[in-house]
Every structure is written in structure tokens, then in C-alpha cells.
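A.,

Following up on our hallway conversation. C-alpha cells first:
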């Protein structure tokens, strides 16, 4: 049994937040396990042998409430001390990343390295503590200092390499974009598009396009295409194929157990959409989230067949367009709860190895809601995940990033009972417009510092009902700009001046 004792204020903890918690194996693949908490102890009854760690939403002083992981541990009768193992896990991954970045012989920035040294000393003290309660307290301190140090080091590394990309002119022409709603464009937001965007992503929602079989509604998409074409803004279509419950036509469920027919219907849908809009679209997200939980009971071979078919058909129909395969929930925690899915990295690796014809991977980072894939991670974890996908040898397009600007029903920070469920963690402090903007600024520099990242799209231009993250738009629902919008306009200008 893998178990962890948890202390709070020197006593066994009364409660622990297990929302989003999962067990992860030595290969970083989430494992199926039953996780329970009782009498101050978290027990993880996993269904696979070998070392494993616990990923848990944890409050870290000065950092926020984020998902963080322990080291990989062997099962034993005595419980491990959670805070000590969380600190050990952060320092281990930090040491590995320092080596990857080639910073072993560098002491810049000095403050970050001092924090890392302090965290190591605190961990040593925790391992030598007289009581488990003292060890837990020192482990918490070590974790906080190590996490701050890792984010500082990550920010320094990102700034250096981002400035290098600016100076060498190695950024692509179309770097910044945003995603609009799958409804007709509101007139009050139109003037806000061009100052922030090199391209715009228009949703291609199958349910909206074909609400009943062989009955089509193109009005909303036509409106966006016409508007953006007039403004001479490049357009990306997304996604051609997605089986999320919000995008699957209700009539399609009649074929849920007939894969051959469903594949043929998907083929005709893709052919129809690409034929209609191919001359206007410069890039297509051909499939999105097929590896993650969806409405259809596909097996591994069927998922790969749909991916291959969508990419090949789109390239054949629109040979000049870029083909993107979209990966969501990159940490793959959903796999620990749904074994019919595919871990994201395994899916991506199989696509590369099987010779699917495509140009780049898409990655999404949506944080804030209390849902798998959206529990908050810090910048160091995001940087490490980008590096993992970068090693696959394909360019990366960040097809959607989003965090909330507030937690209340009107987008402000409040504790109202009717607020949306944004208890999936925090970054620095409670979500507000300033924190949203600060997060966006740091993420943008971090992502574009990676030579394999070619573009970033904000997940929603303005607040509307079906966006992935409530209050996650750059504009409020009345089109009033948020701080993130103003910061993105300035960032856009900086990039354009440099390129």
C-alpha cells in the first residue's frame, strides 16, 4: 500500500482536498488507483506494481494552490510524510531540468539559486527531524522555497531565449491569435480583433453545422469568415473532428456502435467543411481531444484510424493548408479514471511513429475549473511539459490557453454561492483581472522562448457561455477590455517591431 501521512499546524490533518488527485507511475503515465483519506492518512490502492507517486492539489505559500507531485516511491507498510515527499519531488525535477537547460555551472539569477540551496537545506532538516510533524512543517517550507526558485529560474531561462528569438528574427509571422465563439460575431468586439491577433481561430462545431442529419446551418461560420476575410486576417479552422459532448450532433449517437458508418459520416463531414472553406483557411485543427474522454466508445485502433483519415483527407482536399493534431489535457490525469482513453504522450508518439501526414501538434493549457485537465500547474511544470512534447520533433502550436479573470458570476472575485466552479486551484492569489494578465504575460514569454513553439492562441476573445474557462476571455461580455487585453496589445506590438 502506498500511503502518506498529512500534518497541518503540527497535528494530523482533519481534511485534505483530493479533487483531481491521481497516482502516477515511474514513466509519468497516470495509474488507476483508489485514493482515500482517513485519520490523517492518504491511502493509494493502485492496480499496478512498481514505484509510483501522488499528484495532489496543494496550497503552497507565495505560489498558490497547484497540482504538485511526490517522487516515485515503493510501497511499504509505514506511510510516507506527504509534505517531505512533495518537496523531494520538486527538487528532483528541478535538478533534472537544470541539467537539461545546461545551467549546472551557472549561478544566474543568483536569487533563484539561493532559494534552491535553501530548499535543499530545509529538506535535509526535514529528513533529520525528530518528529513527523516537524518534518512535515520543514517539508512545506522546502516545497514553497523550491517552487518559488524553480519558477524564478524558469522565468530567467525563458526571458533569455525569448529575447534571443526576437533578436535573431526567428519568430514566425503569425505568432499570436485568439479563438472566437461559435456564434455570429457581435459587432462590439470586431474592432478589438486586429490589435491583438495575427490570425483568428473559428470553431467548426459539427453539432452547429449539421443540427439534424443532412440539414446544414453555416450562418455563424460564414459571418466570421466574411468578416475576417474583409479585414485580411488569416483564419484557422478548429476542430474538424471532435467528439466532446458539446460538438457531437445528437443524431450521430444512433451510430455509436457502428464504427464503419460513423467513420464514413465523419469523412463526409470533413470533406464538406474543407471544400466549403478551404480557400479561406490557412491551417486546420483536424482532430482535437480524440485521445481524451469523449462521447464515443472508440478503441485505440479506431482512434488512430480516425486521426489518420482526418489528416490525410484534409491534406488532400486543401494541400496548401497546415495540418494540426490537437492534444488536450497534456498531463493525462483523465487516464487514471478512464482506461478507454489514451495517455496524451503515447497518442502523440504513436502518431509520429505510424507516419500520419501532419505538420504540427497543437497543445492546450486551460486552468481554473475543477475538472480533469484544468487543475492549476505552475510555470515550471508547464515549461517541462512543453519540453517533453518538443522532443517529438514536430513544431508546437499552442491552440488554446485560458485562465479566469475572477470567480464570481459577473467575473469579479467574490464568494457568492452562484459563482462558477473555479476551485481547480489558484496561481499567486485568488483569480482576478491582474492575475489573469500576469499569468498570460509569463506564459507567452515562456512558450515563445521554446524554438519549437510557433504560435499561441488565447482560448476565447470575449466572455461567452460556452468558453472552456468561465470569465476566461480577453474582453468582458459587454466587450470592455480586461487588463490581459491591453497587455496582449502591447506584447503584439513588441513582437511586430522586432520582426
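Then the amino acids I'd put at each of the 499 positions:
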Amino acid at each position: 500500500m502506498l500511503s502518506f501521512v498529512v500534518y497541518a499546524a503540527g497535528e494530523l490533518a482533519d481534511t485534505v482536498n483530493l479533487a483531481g488527485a491521481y497516482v502516477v507511475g515511474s514513466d509519468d503515465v497516470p495509474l488507476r488507483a483508489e485514493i482515500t483519506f482517513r485519520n490523517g492518512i492518504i491511502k493509494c490502492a493502485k492496480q499496478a506494481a512498481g514505484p509510483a507517486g501522488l499528484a495532489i492539489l496543494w496550497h503552497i505559500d507565495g505560489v498558490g494552490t497547484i497540482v504538485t507531485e511526490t517522487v516515485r516511491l515503493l510501497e511499504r507498510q509505514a506511510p510516507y510524510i506527504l509534505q517531505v515527499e512533495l518537496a523531494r519531488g520538486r527538487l528532483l525535477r528541478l535538478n533534472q531540468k537544470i541539467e537539461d537547460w545546461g545551467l549546472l555551472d551557472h549561478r544566474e539569477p543568483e536569487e533563484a539559486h539561493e532559494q534552491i540551496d535553501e530548499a535543499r537545506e530545509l529538506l535535509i532538516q526535514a529528513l533529520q527531524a525528530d518528529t513527523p510533524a516537524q518534518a512535515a512543517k520543514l517539508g512545506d517550507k522546502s516545497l514553497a522555497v523550491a517552487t518559488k526558485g524553480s519558477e524564478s529560474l524558469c522565468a530567467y531561462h525563458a526571458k533569455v531565449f525569448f529575447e534571443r528569438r526576437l533578436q535573431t528574427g526567428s519568430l514566425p509571422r503569425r505568432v499570436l491569435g485568439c479563438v472566437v465563439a461559435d456564434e455570429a460575431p457581435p459587432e462590439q468586439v470586431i474592432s478589438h480583433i486586429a490589435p491583438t491577433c495575427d490570425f483568428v481561430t473559428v470553431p467548426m462545431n459539427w453539432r452547429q453545422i449539421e443540427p439534424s442529419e443532412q440539414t446544414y446551418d453555416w450562418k455563424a461560420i460564414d459571418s466570421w469568415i466574411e468578416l475576417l476575410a474583409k479585414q485580411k486576417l488569416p483564419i484557422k479552422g478548429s476542430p474538424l473532428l471532435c467528439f466532446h459532448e458539446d460538438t457531437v450532433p445528437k443524431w450521430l449517437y444512433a451510430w455509436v456502435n457502428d464504427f464503419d458508418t460513423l467513420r464514413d459520416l465523419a469523412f463526409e463531414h470533413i470533406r464538406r467543411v474543407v471544400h466549403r472553406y478551404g480557400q479561406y483557411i490557412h491551417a486546420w485543427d483536424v482532430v482535437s481531444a480524440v485521445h481524451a474522454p469523449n462521447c464515443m466508445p472508440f478503441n485505440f485502433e479506431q482512434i488512430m484510424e480516425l486521426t489518420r483519415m482526418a489528416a490525410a483527407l484534409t491534406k488532400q482536399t486543401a494541400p496548401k493548408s497546415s495540418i494540426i493534431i490537437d492534444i488536450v489535457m497534456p498531463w493525462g490525469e483523465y487516464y487514471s479514471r478512464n482506461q478507454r482513453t489514451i495517455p496524451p504522450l503515447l497518442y502523440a508518439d504513436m502518431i509520429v511513429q505510424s507516419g500520419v501526414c501532419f505538420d504540427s501538434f497543437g497543445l492546450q493549457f486551460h486552468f481554473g475549473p475543477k475538472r480533469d485537465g484544468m487543475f492549476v500547474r505552475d510555470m515550471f511544470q508547464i515549461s517541462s511539459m512543453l519540453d517533453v512534447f518538443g522532443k517529438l520533433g514536430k513544431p508546437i502550436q499552442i491552440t488554446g490557453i485560458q485562465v479566469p479573470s475572477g470567480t464570481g458570476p459577473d467575473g469579479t472575485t467574490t464568494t457568492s454561492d452562484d459563482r462558477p466552479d473555479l476551485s481547480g486551484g489558484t496561481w499567486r492569489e485568488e483569480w482576478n483581472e491582474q492575475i489573469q494578465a500576469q499569468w498570460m504575460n509569463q506564459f507567452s514569454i515562456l512558450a515563445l522562448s521554446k524554438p519549437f513553439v510557433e504560435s499561441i492562441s488565447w482560448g476565447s476573445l470575449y466572455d461567452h457561455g460556452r468558453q472552456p474557462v468561465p470569465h476566461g476571455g480577453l474582453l468582458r461580455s459587454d466587450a470592455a477590455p480586461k487588463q490581459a487585453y491591453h497587455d496582449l496589445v502591447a506584447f503584439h506590438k513588441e513582437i511586430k517591431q522586432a520582426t
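The chain has eleven helices and 18 strands. Curious whether your intuition agrees with the design.

B.
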